[in-house]
Protein 1
Amino acid sequence: MIEISNLHKSYKTGANKLHVLKGINFSVQEGELVSIMGSSGSGKSTLLNILGMLDEADEGSYILDGVQIKNLNEKIAAQYRNKFLGFIFQSFNLISYKTALDNVALPLYYQGHPRNERMDRAMSYLEKVGLADWAGHLPNELSGGQKQRVAIARALASDPKVLLADEPTGALDTKTSYEVMDLIQQINDEGRTILVVTHEHDIAQMTKRIVNLKDGLIIEDSLVNQIRAAENV
Ligand code: ADP
Ligand code: MG
């Protein structure tokens, strides 16, 4: 599903150049649940943003579902991103003046689906994350865990091949973090490929494979004896 080789990325800050990714190689098969772990500033978000086609590498190759991503023109890249990738962020990134249902339906609006279909599909995804009763509520009427569930439903609405989550539990307490990871495990059990960025070892342990990032390189890539989230609560 994902194949990257010799990926490099630097940021220019004034006269200085910060070399963040220094030759990353890894691949992810369809259906995997992988965490990318590393301390703050190790380049996790930089890597995830490149995988999510939100940013481009300076060097190296990135093949997503058989397509070389480099040098795609802007329009095709955007279509590709909308069709293949779903995003979940630490800060939820919900639209504050739209209800839970309308937030989930938004990607379907951009994909041009008719209103009835948008609402039906959005509702079914809200049901999936256990929030059908909260469809008409605004984000500020929801708890952190509920907001993240809405964001997960929204990410699923466009039926992406790969779900990319950047510190999805970073703003949540421990119990809620485990519940959100439980949901992520459940979505992966249904066959969806998921990458989770985290700096927390406990969270990474709830995926199937941990890729450890340090000083711009992968220093460890190992399978996890998966702990079910429920066992931790
Ligand atoms: P992580 O997600 O692991 O905390 P990041 O990928 O966000 O790490 O950042 C890696 C390094 O790159 C950090 O030192 C950060 O300050 C720097 N960095 C990230 N984004 C930018 C940017 N847009 N411009 C300049 N430096 C950046
Ligand atoms: Mg980050």
Note: Helices lie at 44-51, 74-84, 100-110, 115-128, 144-157, 174-189, 201-204.
Protein 2
Amino acid sequence: FSHNMNSLNPFKLVAEELSGIAKSFEEAVAVNHPVLQRAASYFLNITGKRFRPTVVILMAYAVNASNSNLMDSTNSRVSHESPSVKSSPHILPSQLKLAEITELIHVASLLHDDVIDVADTRRGVKSVNALFGNQLSVLAGDFLLSRASVSLARLRNCDVVEMLSTVIEHLVHGEVLQMTVDEGNSNDKLEVYLQKTFLKTASLIANSCQAVALLSNCPKEIVKVAFEYGRHLGLAYQLMDDALDFTGSSTSLGKPALADIHQGTLTAPVLFAMEQYPEIRDYAKRRFQRPDDISKTLLAIENSKGIERTVDLAKEHCYLAKEGIQQTLQDTSYRQALLEMADFVVTRKQ
Ligand code: FPP
Ligand code: MG
Ligand code: MG
């Protein structure tokens, strides 16, 4: 994070909360089996950007500031000042817990994902499947999901439980959509790609943002705005991820580059190239298995500005994410940080 004096670093703004969460993970994944313990806590200790918990914490503060009838789960007022008195920023324990649950579900999905993608690195280190084997990686993912479910239940809010449970279905559905070539060739359509992208990436962020707004007991409009911010941010995030898969190196990304096309997965840069070079459809149908399929597709992406168009689409979603909260949420440093976060998503290199 570089920048001028007016901008703030969203990650620094919530550094204290993030380290609180890191401590809390120890308890969340404590289990009386050393191997399961190590496999499950591996990516909780080797942290990534902590993008998701940062967004959730910022959203919690931002909606709480915009919500004059903030109640905690026992319906007692959290802030005792009158609305005219500017109260100090606050976050509910349940909202912090939600940020933790979001990261648990995310890491669980990564442990499964690296098995499916046969990926041997992540976050610049060996993947859990590479270190402990596929079976343990799957089981450690299941274990994290189970602990996330217990934490979720303890929030005693059925709507929030329903939202985050639906996310787990979405992750599975998105992943299955991605790995199957369906008969109608609908995988070729940008619309289907975007739907898949919502399911595999944006749903977790959208529903987590929505859930913290719900925990704040916000008016319906704000709950909706929180969801839409997360949805657009998540779409922008994955679009950039799919562009970086082509433009980044394995070193800069900390995970294998060109992974999608090697997996036979159609992402936005390829779909854009396809509009100009229809022969890519044939390569895609055989999942880029023949010797020159990949090199020809890479050339077509370059000639068709597939990467630029993907980044442009990401920027559009970044804009929509920002617009919604700017019109609705109170102007606070947390709202400002959410805006910065959207810019970070479309400028990041890893
Ligand atoms: C990363 O995508 C993976 C996901 C966003 C979701 C993966 C979901 C599953 C494996 C379904 C099962 C999950 C659960 C929790 C039951 P990617 O492979 O495009 O990104 P990468 O480059 O980071 O690997
Ligand atoms: Mg993967
Ligand atoms: Mg994957």
Note: The chain has a mean pLDDT of 91.
